[in-house]
């Protein structure tokens, strides 16, 4: 009886272990594209060397080496490259780089660099958010609906302090989820979408990873200048921002489009994409 109970317990532990590996593989693939396969490789090698090296150590070595050395070398074979960094072109959150969500097509990289160069003398820093994974078109970069071909990237809004001085700081640790809500006089697309049943429309508010810099306010002049500079780029196809912010900044360019209720609200960031 005791033997059968121990055997059943060991069997359940093995099933739980397998399910845990499957879940971790799936999660790492969704978050980083390459993490899942590197996890499996680490576990297999650890088993082969009879666990003389723990799989977690192997995974850290493999993932770090791949992310910062090998992936940037291989990605151009798939038509993508890392977003370049300049003095005033930076990731809003370092996690974007660690998770391999900072790859774009060379022409989009050129737009970012040229825009950053033009904004440098204006005291504005271009902070970018999620772009695309390094490999394979149509591989989803969740939770985004369209960041799957190297042509898209999100950019942070510009903020200023109480004295009206433009800052590089943000209001969310992750870069998403702290919204610039419409005023009573502005069209409220958010309420419209939520009332139509698109419950996901404002879900980024749950993924801020903490709100910061509460004293900062949305910079109309800074964000408008950023958008106008981007719109001057010939290769730019579309720019998404919430309708009430478009109204507030008096922007009328035909490249500025509405993303639809099926997406998420865009009053915490700007989305741009190539033609």
Question: Strands, helices and their partners?
Answer:
Elements: H1 2-32, H2 35-48, H3 55-74, E1 81-82, E2 89-91, H4 95-98, E3 103-104, H5 106-120, E4 126-128, E5 152-156, E6 159-160, E7 166-167, H6 189-195, E8 217-218, H7 220-231, E9 236-240, H8 243-248, E10 256-257, E11 269-274
Parallel strand pairs: 2-4, 9-10
Antiparallel strand pairs: 1-3, 5-11, 6-7, 6-8, 9-11
Helix pairs in contact: 1-2, 2-3, 5-7
How would you characterize this protein structure?
The structure is a single chain. By secondary structure, the chain is α+β, with helices and mostly antiparallel strands. It folds into 2 domains: 2-75, no CATH class; 80-274, Muramoyl-pentapeptide Carboxypeptidase, domain 2, CATH 3.30.1380.10. 40% of the residues lie in helices and 12% in strands. The protein contains 8 helices and 11 strands. The protein has helices spanning 2-32, 35-48, 55-74, 95-98, 106-120, 189-195, 220-231, 243-248; strands spanning 81-82, 89-91, 103-104, 126-128, 152-156, 159-160, 166-167, 217-218, 236-240, 256-257, 269-274. It has a 4-stranded mixed sheet with strand order 5-11-9-10, with helices on one face. The chain has a 3-stranded antiparallel sheet with strand order 7-6-8. Strands 1-3 form a two-stranded antiparallel sheet. Helix 8 links the parallel strand 9 (236-240) and strand 10 (256-257). The longest helix has 31 residues, at 2-32. The chain is globular. The termini are far apart. The relative contact order is 0.11. The model has no long low-confidence stretch (mean pLDDT 93).
The topology string of helices and strands comes to HHHEEHEHEEEEHEHEHEE
Task: Categorize the overall geometry.
Answer: globular
- The average pLDDT score comes to 93
Structure annotation, total helices: 8
| Helix proportion | 25-40%
CATH fold group of the largest domain: Muramoyl-pentapeptide Carboxypeptidase, domain 2
- Briefly note the structural class of the backbone: alpha+beta
What does the largest sheet look like? 4 strands, mixed
Strand order of the largest sheet: 5-11-9-10
Count the domains.
2
CATH class of the largest domain: Alpha Beta
As a whole number of angstroms, the C-alpha radius of gyration is 22 Å
Q: Name the CATH architecture of the largest domain.
A: 2-Layer Sandwich
